[in-house]
Specification:
With 104 residues, the chain is α+β, with helices and mostly antiparallel strands. The protein is 27% helix and 27% strand. The protein has helices spanning 16-25, 40-57, and strands at residues 2-8, 61-64, 69-73, 80-84, 88-94. The chain has a five-stranded antiparallel sheet with strand order 1-5-4-3-2. Strand 2 (61-64) and strand 3 form a beta hairpin. It starts with a strand and ends in a 10-residue tail after the last strand.
């Protein structure tokens, strides 16, 4: 099982639902994604994320794609993938059981 978590910057004049509605308003599954063009501030935020994660859970390898930056960890506590697009980010956490309950 994987849990998907979306991190959204909520403008001061919005609610969470309004911010997510704005993100989804222009969604077209057939459209090409816009190329990633990070500002210096966004790039600095990515560097801080990598530094913090590396300090908390160990070194990670990151990759830069046309549309996002990403890193993935494998190992205790399991697989975690983080995708960063500047103003939004997504986290996937694989949930696994150990011991007697693992087969359920």
């Amino acid at each position: 099982m994987t849990y998907d978590i979306m991190l959204v910057r909520i403008p001061a004049d919005s609610t969470l639902h309004e911010a997510v509605d704005r993100l989804n308003a222009d969604f077209d599954p057939d459209a090409d994604l816009p190329l990633l063009r990070l500002t210096d501030v966004q790039r600095a935020a990515w560097d801080r994320i990598l530094d913090r994660v590396s300090g908390e859970i160990g070194a990670v390898e990151s990759a830069e794609y046309l549309y996002s930056l990403t890193f993935e960890t494998v190992g205790p506590p399991g697989r975690v993938q983080f995708d960063y697009c500047g103003d939004t980010a997504g986290v996937e956490v694989a949930h696994r059981h150990s011991g007697a309950g693992r087969r359920r």
